[in-house]
Specification:
- It is elongated, with a radius of gyration of 18 Å.
- The chain starts with a helix and ends in a 14-residue tail after the last helix.
- The protein is mainly alpha-helical and about 180 residues long.
- Helix content is about 60%, strand content about 5%.
- About 35% of the residues are buried.
- The protein folds into two domains: about 70 residues, Winged helix-like DNA-binding domain superfamily/Winged helix DNA-binding domain (Arc Repressor Mutant, subunit A, Orthogonal Bundle); about 90 residues, no CATH class.
Length: about 180
Amino acid sequence: MKKSEQNHVSEAELSHSMVHYLLTIHKLKEGKGYARVTDIAKDLGLTKGSVSTAVNNLKKKNLVMEEEDSKFLLLTDDGHSEVHRILSSRTLLYYFLKDFVGVSEEVAENDSCQMEHLMSPETSEKFFEFMKDLACTCERLEGKGVIPDSFNFKTSLNLCQYKSAEDFVESQEGDKHLPSESEA
């Protein structure tokens, strides 16, 4: 079993809202250096009570834990792996929808957010390989003049720089591959 499959929480176990809690904890920890229930509630526009309930469910799934002697929340190794897997799926879906399918950035962002946690590790890996093969092969052939410019399977995501899907997953740092809110 591959590393990405070992830590994967099945999609039946992780709802769309749970994904948002994990991503918010990750974002707060990266940005502020800490994440508390109060911070998550403020960021998501929810009550502390509903966030506490969700965090307890994430703790039961071994995705989140509290620092000893404080109320700061941390992602476990499994939680961190899951966040990177989800961000990778979102990034791939976003660029596929925007660059290959041709939907607007707003639609690509919304749809990729809705689908990100539903993609299995196997599908995500095969999707990465498909997109990389298509983009990199077309880029090489177009550079040689073999493919006309009108045959456009280009993406603004440089997939050719990654050796494997696992390298791509490990490279995810927040939403850096997606446009910021000011660019959207």
